[in-house]
Design brief:
Elements (H helix, E strand, L loop, with lengths): L1 H17 L7 H7 L2 E10 L3 E11 L5 E5 L18 E8 L5 E3 L6 E5 L2 E2 L11 H14 E5 L9 E5 L3 H8 L3 H10 L5 E2 H4 L2
Parallel strand pairs: 9-10
Antiparallel strand pairs: 1-2, 1-4, 2-3, 4-5, 4-6, 6-7, 8-9
Helix pairs in contact: 3-5, 4-5
């Protein structure tokens, strides 16, 4: 009997690691988002929740919006149960039905408690909401994404940078989350605007 239990535990851990969420880089999540907001959950129902926005980082909408609940699965589950009063920073896209959904499920739904993020799997550059929000703002002022913004990466993606690499480097010294995003976006070899005119 002990062998069966050990074998079951081994196989369970083996098969759990075989599933891995394909997470979008935050540089793409931010660029793809129709709405990036900070606020609190007002009401939770079976398949959606109502969200009251306290700050817009990208886009505009009504102060109260409806957000579809995404389906949890083995490698992408919620950090904790959604309850009224829970503060979140959301990266959202608008659906054809007029409501919103977090981009890439848990990637677009960041839980905040006592002005810190509670997801231990987030990179250390997600130090606190203030730094993150400033970094998002700096990123949106500096980069624009073109190409396939859908989840299929068969189309070529490219970023356009409207500041010199030297100015961007200086900016990275003032915000750790912006630095994190710049390191991520440099993989796509962004083009500077002034290069397009020569």
């Amino acid at each position: 009997m002990k062998w069966y239990i050990c074998l079951l535990l081994f196989l369970n851990s083996y098969f759990n690691y075989a599933f891995k969420k394909e997470a979008l880089p935050y540089s793409i999540v931010i660029s793809k988002a129709d709405l990036i907001v900070d606020g609190v959950v007002s009401k939770v129902s079976k398949d959606k929740y109502e969200f009251t926005i306290s700050q817009f980082l990208k886009g505009r909408s009504a102060i109260k919006i409806s957000i579809s609940l995404w389906k949890e699965w083995l490698c992408d589950s919620r950090i904790k149960e959604l309850k009224p009063g829970q503060r979140l920073i959301l990266f959202l896209e608008k659906t054809a039905y007029g409501n919103f959904i977090p981009i890439n499920q848990s990637t677009g739904e960041l839980y905040v408690d006592n002005d810190t993020f509670i997801n231990i799997l987030l990179p250390k550059d997600f130090s606190n909401p203030t730094v993150l929000k400033k970094g998002v703002s700096m990123f949106l002022e500096t980069y624009t994404l073109y190409g396939g913004l859908n989840y299929e990466f068969s189309q070529k993606l490219y970023f356009l940078r409207n500041k010199s690499i030297f100015a961007v480097y200086r900016m990275t010294t003032s915000n750790s989350f912006f630095k994190f995003l710049v390191q991520d976006v440099e993989y796509y070899k962004p083009t500077e605007i002034y290069q397009l005119f020569y």
